[in-house]
Specification:
- There is one protein chain.
- The chain is α/β, with parallel strands linked by helices.
- It is 38% helix and 10% strand.
- β1, α3 and β2 form a beta-alpha-beta unit.
- The N and C termini lie close together (11 Å).
Length: 237
């Protein structure tokens, strides 16, 4: 599941994952110009529609992988109902509040897109250039920012109660984190992992906020190893 950067930030990695299992890659309502019902305006609301999707498709033992805001949705899914979820993977996720300057989430709404990109990416060669975007790409990016603000703008990128509830998650958890992330730091990621009753924390070297873009092979190896250790029949990613 993608974060505020929209579906384009996860689609190439989803194709890589799809070589090893069935993959569903939803676009959250409101992102990439998709319509959003007026009454759908929260992360718990998104979690509810994805639980309904799992029921409609009759999927079980699903590995839910979420980057950034998508990781927050994955946490909410696991808190609400794990009858169809086998494990969750959080990749540079947001959603909790952690005290301290070293764990503060950068305010992407207050930053110029170029500034946000510099914080988000370790490798300048893969960093998107806002000046090079087409009109359609600029429109999609604007829609993504608007949707992210609706779902996670107030309070900014967190639920004050989420961290307190996370110990109730009863499925295996992998928290993977780009070591050079300037949006949400590894210290925040470690605190996220420690909030669960039991979670594995893995740093991904030479990656920022989007390890699936900068280090896709390394992230794939981590997810396959993690999922393989707990795989049951009917496994889906």
């Amino acid at each position: 599941m993608h974060g505020g950067a929209g579906p384009g930030s996860v689609l190439p990695f989803a194709s890589l994952l799809a070589r090893h299992g069935r993959v569903l890659t939803p676009t959250h309502p409101g992102f990439a110009g998709r319509p959003r019902p007026d009454n759908l305006d929260s992360i718990p609301g998104l979690a509810s529609i994805y639980l309904d999707l799992l029921r409609q498709l009759d999927l079980r033992d699903v590995t839910v992988v979420g980057n950034s805001l998508g990781g927050w949705i994955a946490s909410e899914l696991a808190l609400r109902d794990t009858s169809r979820i086998g494990r969750i993977v959080l990749v540079n996720a947001v959603g909790i509040h952690v005290d301290g300057d070293a764990t503060e989430i950068a305010d992407i709404f207050a930053l110029h897109p170029d500034q946000a990109a510099r914080l988000a990416f370790h490798d300048p060669s893969v960093r998107p250039d806002p000046a090079a975007l087409t009109n359609d790409e600029l429109a999609a990016a604007a829609a993504n920012r608007t949707a992210a603000a609706v779902y996670a703008g107030d309070p900014y990128m967190h639920d004050p109660e989420l961290r307190r509830r996370l110990p109730r998650v009863d499925v295996p958890v992998l928290v993977a984190w780009g070591r050079e992330d300037g949006i949400v730091t590894p210290a925040y990621g470690k605190a996220y992992a420690e909030s669960f009753a039991a979670a594995r924390f893995e740093l991904v070297a030479d990656a920022g906020h989007f390890p699936q873009i900068e280090q896709p092979t390394r992230l794939l190896d981590l997810i396959r190893e993690f999922a393989g250790a707990t795989t049951r029949p009917g496994h889906s990613v």
